[in-house]
Structure formats: structure tokens, C-alpha cells
Amino acid sequence: MQARLGAVAVVTCGCFTFVGACDPCDAVVGPAVVEIGTGFDAFEPLPATLQVQFGLQGGTHLNGALAISGLFYEPLDLLGTNADKLATTTFQSIDSAGEAVGGYEQIPVDFRDGDDGRGVRVPEPVVFFVPDGSVFAGQVLTLRASVEDICGNRAEASADVEVTGF
Predict the structure, then answer these.
(1) CATH number assigned to the domain covering 25-164
(2) Beta carbons of 146 and 89 less than 8 angstroms apart
(3) What CA dihedral angle connects 125, 31, 16 and 11, to 10 degrees?
(4) Whole-model pTM?
């Protein structure tokens, strides 16, 4: 009888504990870190240049990616029942005047397990606010990211990248 009750506790609280309340924040280990990179199938370090890409909906973007550690994350389930556990994320491209020229602010984002044990968001396009992002070719833009988990842990990062045309 005790084994059955323990199994029910595991299923209902969503983590591996048999006693006490299940707090997902207890599983967070280490300092909160976000790294900006690129990649399509896997996270890769950010190169010195990124090429403007055409999007499926007619816009243009840079192919970015994010990797996190020391933050709670959970992939979105098929029904979206865990949307309240997603990390709130900002990922923007900033021009030399300090103005955002692409990206998004304070959006719930799901991360998945990466090959190296970190949570990753790959690819993560940084969509330009203008229809033709090639106007930024030859310029250095700052990619800026911040991620805050449901536990109140927050990480920020920025990296400069030169934009190349199509």
C-alpha cells in the first residue's frame, strides 16, 4: 500500500520524491546562466558573423539560439497544460544607437534538454522589425537575451555579431 501511495505522489507532483511537497525549484543547481549562440539542430557557439535569413512568413531574421543552466525549465507538453512553468524570455537585436531592431520581449518560452545537459532553444530566430533585414548588412548588432524562470532566477547575456546580407 505504501508503494502505491508513493507512486501516486510522483505522478501528481511531477518530480521524483516520495516525501513532502514537490517544489521544482529544488532541482535548480548552480548560478543562472544564459548563452547566446546559433544552430539549427544543436546549440553552437556564436560566430563573428550571421547571415540574414528569409523567413517562411515573408520576414527576415538572424538564426540565433539560447542555452541556459542554473534555471528551471520544462518543455511545453502537447496540451500546453504546463505553460505556467515556462521561462519568461527576452531575445533582441540592438543597433549601434541602442534601439531594438528585432526580437521579442517577455515571452514565455519552452526550452528542451540539450546534448550537454543545458536547456536549449534551437533555432531561435531573431526576427527583424523591418521587412528586409539586409539593410543591416555590414553593421554590428548586439544580441541581448534575458531569461527568468518560475523560481525567480534570472540570467542575462549579450554578444556582438556582424550581419551579412543574403
Answers:
(1) 2.60.40.2550
(2) yes
(3) -40
(4) 0.85
